[in-house]
Amino acid sequence: MASKSKESSYSVAEMISKNSGKSLNRSVEKSIPWILFAIAGVSVLTTIGIVFTLIFETFTFFSRVSVFEFITGTEWFPFSIQNPSYGILPLISGTLKITGIAVVVAVPIGLASAIYLSEYATDRSRRFIKPILEVLAGIPTIVFGFFALTFVTPLLESFIPSLTIFNALSPGIVVGIMIIPMIASLSEDAMSSVPNSIREGAQALGATKLEVALKVVLPAAVSGIVASIVLAISRAIGETMIVTVAAGASPNLSWNVTDSIQTMTAYIVQVSTGDAGYGTTIYYSIYAVGFTLFLFTLGMNLLAQYISKRFREEY
Amino acid sequence: MKYINQENVLRKMSSRLMVNSVFKGLFFLATLFGLVVLSVLLYRVFTQGIGYLDLQFLQSVGSRFPEKAGIYAAFMGTIWLMFVVVIVSFILAVGTAIYLEEYAKQNKINKFIKVNISNLAGVPSVVFGLLGLTIFARAFALGQSVLAAGLTMSLLILPVIIVAAQEAIRSVPRELRDASYGMGATKWQTITRVVLPAAIPGILTGSILAFSRAIGETAPLVVIGVPTILLFTPGSILDTFTALPMQIYDWTKRPQADFHDVAAAGIIILLGLLLIMNSIAVLIRNKFQKRY
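Predict the joint structure of the above. Result:
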């Protein structure tokens, strides 16, 4: 017993001398930051790689198709043999249609959930409900696509007989369901960070819980809430598998949500699974579409960052 | 001077309280909506897929006939894919997080790296697919191999793990580091022997959630050109492969209704795998959750 305790106790001086003897030599200690810096650089290289490939291949595309036609053209028929046309507006309109429907579904439900969780729910029910919403957020999008095609579309068909199998409505609703947890949880974070003293002040003046929530907490948390909605829109724009499976592949500019449409992401998938050979104009067109998609989502993400920084309320 | 009319206030108060409780009910219903959709989705998938979920389904590969189709090749492909993703993304993400939290000074380069990571998190997965197709599949000539897809997926989930690892490392208290330095340890010794062991549960929890996202991601695989019908399993990371979400996607878009049931059976397997991984993450979080 005595010898054991002697073994496990050193004087500090002993430890330092022992450590200096076996420590990795100084050159390793000095090179570690540089190795880690190189590893951290991979994420920057990834961004450079994405931007570079998109710009480079899009450039090749624009050497064959005029930029003007691409931006202003109202017809997207790349597979037409005699007269292929590359006007991206139908793909953008399809994407915006899906996004619009998703926002109409997700913003009211997501915000209402956030208000319930932060203002009304007890601690216990919040701890029960939040993880389940997280499970919803973790469902793979291909599963949501399957759900849209085999459940939501037939369900909608019984209300709207003119609905085609592939339409904008059903995947739009399901994309909305997909982004509900994002809006709910980010908005709840923003609303929960509003200090209780402000709520109590309003209640002391005789406000009901609803009035506190809508007239005090919501305005105070508005930057976080708007940022969460913008991020969710960005996610909806970039969503791929739900629209690929359930929205069809007919790019058109109509406002009818019961028709089949095509989004930017779904077009990229369509070409990737087809047999457009390497080097064809169709092959390069997916980069031009991808670049447009990238600019859309990048713009939204920067906007969300700007909003949450610029309008943040400090307490 | 006007005094408060008590009667008036009381009359208004009751209607205001009623509006309050009506809206409370509405907000509660909205919260329930997510839970209801989740249960409908799970119920549909299970009742639809359970008929095809048998030993034969687990042991066979893709087929033109729904009753002969199976998940084996896709399941093994997913395991191979995760092998690459786990190793590559974990090393890259933890290295980056250590650099940013322990070494990086507040200068422009490091600020740029941080901004870059948060922007990268918002890039759609299909765009990562274009990156993988151009750089890994074509420029590096890796084709539709496990390695090409694994590298693409790793970059896709990199930002998520970096942020989780940064938070875990940040939550290790200063006192532990100071004590380590006080004992004469060098910076790297402190990081590997004190900071990382304390942060590893947090890092693992975040990573497993990111890995489970990678398991379900389909879009990058489709864009890289990963095949859906494959009659063999990969023997090395340079072999072509197929994965669970690809197989489900293939079955989903077939016109025959029978294949939709097969897809549902595949989804049960995929969700089962995700459930196991999420449970492991929760277990780690609960077991090692320490407050300093």
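The first helix of chain B runs from residue 6 to 49.
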